[in-house]
Amino acid sequence: MAERITDNIGNCCCGSKSCSNSDHNHDEHHHDHDHNHDAHGHNHEHHHHEKFTKRDVIEFIIGFGLFALALLLNVKTEVKIGLYVVAYVVVGREIVISAIKGLFTGRLLDENFLMTIASISAFAIGEYPEATAVILFYRVGELFEGLAVNRSKNSIEELLNIKPDVANLKVGDKYKIVDPEKVKVGDTIMVKPGEKIPLDGYVIEGTSSIDTSVITGESLPREAEEGTEVYSGSINKSGVILVKVTKEFSESTVAKILKLVKDANSQKAHTEKFITKFARYYTPIVVGIAVLLAFIPAIFFGGDFGSWIYRAAIFLVVSCPCALVISIPLGYFGGIGGASSKGILVKGGNYLEELRNIKSIIFDKTGTLTKGVFKVTQVISSNQGVNKEKVVEIAAHVEHYSNHPIAVSIINEYNKNIDEKRVKDITEVAGKGVKALFDGKMVAVGNRKLMEQENVSVGNRDTVVGTKVYVAMDNKLMGIIVIADELKSDTIDAIKELKNHGVEDIVMLTGDHKDVAEDIANKVGITRYYSDLLPDEKVDKLEEIMNGVGKNDTVVFVGDGINDAPVLARADVGIAMGGVGSDAAIEAADVVLMSDELSSIPTAMRVSKNTNKIVWENIVFSLGIKIAIMILATLNLANMWMAIFADVGVAVIAILNSIRALRVK
Question: Could you tell me the pTM of the whole model?
Answer without folding.
Answer: 0.66
